[in-house]
User: Fold this.
Amino acid sequence: MTKLNQTACFLIFFWIFLTPTAIATDWQLVAAESSIEFSGTQTDIAFSGKFNRFSADISFDPADPSNAFVKAEVDLASAFTDDTQRDTALPQEDWFFISSFPRAIFEAKEFQHNGDNRYNVTGALTLRGVEKTVTLPIHLKIDGDRAEMRSKINLNRADFGIGSGPWSEGKWVGLNVAVSLHIVAERSAP
Assistant:
């Protein structure tokens, strides 16, 4: 191998394997400090709930959000509203139908930086086998190896077929569901 070829191989190796911008930063969800909450109305009375089990694969570098990746999964059986009748109904076929669709999945496809600590994150949300594109307006604060993200979004449950039969029209249970996210993550060790 000539000296020129050796130099070229070294430069290619250096560029591919050692350039820090080529490697996104991975983050580990801190589930005990994170929450996914929801609220709606039933017979015009407000109620709220939360999901107790969820996970996320997160790869994000604020210097290069175009290469970010997030895939979050929510265990729908973990929904809790502190109302026995509602909590018993949510896993059933009329609502989440968890025997066929046990998880909600959000997979981010695009990150748009809007200045300061604000982003719009657009991705595919799948519930009950129905996939819809949604955009989450997020506020992201990174302090050293710790990140904290907050977002709120309103969803129409009928768009995903949640609440069928007598529940489909919104007469008894409102169609609008507000979802609030508070996600804490720590930077993974390299």
Notes: The first helix runs from residue 3 to 18. Helices lie at 3-18, 84-89. The first strand starts at residue 26 and ends at 29. Residues 2-22 have pLDDT under 50 and may be disordered.
